[in-house]
Design a protein that fits this description.
By secondary structure, this protein is an alpha+beta fold. Helix content is 34%, strand content 28%. Strands 1, 2, 3, 4, 5, 6, 9 and 15 form an eight-stranded mixed sheet that branches. It starts with 6 loop residues before the first strand and ends in a 26-residue tail after the last strand.
């Protein structure tokens, strides 16, 4: 077989059709149409993307211009010590077997940008490459490792289990028993631990809250490294596409004290919700108690076929409240890590606010 001559080039608008075709075949279980929707969201609708200044990403091609690899580039602006800093997030690093020798060269294209670089990979191989070859710094967050899962509607929870474990009878039986036990514990604890809190309200958002910037100013003042929850970012991430995550506001005495969002999708004939963002100014047990109760009610109203809700715990108060309400603690083997690098800055990353929203997770709903 003749040796294939590869080269790496920047992605331009004329590559998008063949790139969507390549990704639909090789990565993620999305259709070509769905990849076009992703491209629209991460580039065309992105307020930080300027095709004259920022690359969409890079592809590996042969002499016939067939694609053998891709690495996407999503620009953001974070605040570090209160100052805006350009951030580039690597996404969807995939290379065909024939072009594996070009993989590191492809990633070097991302590294050559002038700014902070992040990656939220969940694979062991990429973790090793980022830390040992490219010398990214890993920000250790125990909250990324553990999921807290709650069955909501037993019928649709069973439906999900039968689809997920379709060829394993024992796992079906043990999973169903586990779900029933958790549901019983949840109902008992609901009446034991439910607190009467009239001043906290939670509402589904159909547009950015009017006082979002006031809330954002309070949030960003607490952290050294944070992605602003300002009106511009909220409009982009939650209201620029009909495929966007679901956003809720948390208010105390009518003042906005938090934002909560969920990814959602249909699997095995039921709907699942996974916590995406959890940015709350007051994480006292009483407030968290109210949030956990009301979020379940709101999600059940939105989707009657809901099977599971998955949370993450961002502090000890939240962990305790989730466990009290019967959430099942599950440590994921392939949880997302957060890696960061900038050799041209002496700024230190210390007090961070990171949730599952950071990185590229916002753009990939549950399939």
């Amino acid at each position: 077989m003749d040796k294939i001559n590869f080269k790496i080039k920047s992605v331009d608008q004329y590559d998008l059709d063949s790139l969507a075709e390549f990704l639909s075949i090789n990565h993620g279980g999305l259709t070509k149409k769905q990849w076009f929707e992703k491209f629209e969201l991460i580039w065309n609708l992105n307020p930080y993307f300027d095709e004259k200044k920022v690359e969409r990403g890079w592809i590996i091609i042969d002499n016939k211009k067939d694609i053998y690899g891709f690495l996407g580039n999503i620009p953001f602006v974070y605040l570090i010590d209160g100052s805006p800093e350009q951030i580039y997030c690597g996404t969807t690093w995939i290379v065909s077997k024939e072009a594996r020798g070009e993989s590191l060269k492809l990633y070097e294209q991302l590294n050559n940008q002038n700014g902070w670089l992040i990656n939220t990979t969940g694979t062991a191989d990429v973790n090793k490459i980022l830390s040992e070859i490219f010398h990214y710094t890993k920000i250790d967050l125990s909250s990324f490792e553990t999921n807290y899962i709650l069955p909501v509607n037993l019928l649709f929870s069973f439906k999900f289990i039968f689809g997920y474990y379709k060829n394993n009878f024992l796992k079906k039986i043990f999973s169903i028993l586990g779900v029933v036990i958790i549901k019983v514990i949840t109902l008992i604890n609901y009446f034991i631990f439910k607190k009467k809190i009239g001043k906290i309200s939670i509402n589904h958002c159909s547009k950015p809250p009017n006082d979002i910037d006031e809330f954002n100013n309070k949030l960003i003042s607490k952290y050294n490294f944070v992605f602003p929850r300002n009106k511009k970012n909220i409009e982009w991430l939650y209201f620029s596409s009909n495929k966007s995550p679901i956003l809720f506001e948390v208010r105390e005495n009518k003042s906005l004290i938090g934002l909560i969002s969920f990814l959602h999708g249909t699997q095995y004939g039921s709907t699942r919700f996974d916590l995406l963002d959890f940015s709350i100014l007051d994480t006292s047990p009483a407030v968290l108690n109210k949030i956990i109760i009301e979020i379940q009610k709101l999600l059940k109203q939105m989707k009657k076929d809901i099977s599971f809700i998955t949370f993450k715990s961002y502090d000890n108060n939240m962990k305790n409240e989730l466990m009290k309400f019967g959430f099942y603690k599950f440590k994921s083997k392939n949880y997302s890590n957060f890696y960061i690098r900038n050799f041209n800055s002496d700024k230190k990353i210390s007090n961070v606010h990171l949730t599952s929203m950071d990185g590229d997770r916002s753009f990939f709903n549950i399939n």
